[in-house]
Amino acid sequence: xxxxxxSVLLFFPLTLALGLVTRNLLLLFGALPTGGYLLDPSNLIxxxxxxxxxxxxxxxxxxxSYYTFQVYKMILPVSVDDKTNQKIISGQISKxxxxxTWLIVTKVWFFGDSLFDRxxxxxxxxxxxxxxxxxxxxxxxxxxxxxxxGGLWTGGFRAxxxxxxxxxxxxxxxxxxxxxxxxDPSFSRWGLIPTAIVMAFWILMFWVTSIFxxxxxxxxxxxxxALAFLSILYISKACAYVNIN
Length: 245
Hints:
By secondary structure, the chain is mainly α. The protein has helices at about 5-30, 45-50, 55-70, 85-105, 115-120, 145-150, 160-185, 190-210, 215-235; strands spanning about 125-130, 150-155.
């Protein structure tokens, strides 16, 4: 069963478009909520499924890798002479390392602030320090120092980190499961259940973010960066050595 790779990528701009249409309809009828459980960044769903997205992704990637070995008739331990086995195992390990490293340097740490934070700093972001602390803090405005001081990091240009992360993890897992389906559409579906549950929550958070948070350009840029990465990793010939099909 063939599943076009383009269909994986198209899901995200189409879902964003649906979110923007929903937002405009809510505005048209004057019913755009400004509060509620899902709109609270500290809600449990956001805290678990976005706050721990990296760890959850790694676990789910392990599950789909197991099924990849199964459907491609991989038998462990691997024979040193079995080049096919070696390619698949090294490919799966390489991909999870590449994806995790990409997420870390863009959103968590890159010799200090992450790449996303550096972009915001260089486009005019400033820290609004708590009242009374401005004169007590050595001014070295960056995201990390602002956060440590309990300040509010505002201004500058920022791509949507939520949509960037969600597009990356959802897209990566979708490409991995596509590879399994293409090889054996009749494989046991039990391993897909935890992935489907988590992906449902991620899609919910994607949709909520596309409706209620960030400007349109911030959302588009966040998704575009993730799609460019996924295209290079899963579609371009540059990374063909880590993919089975």
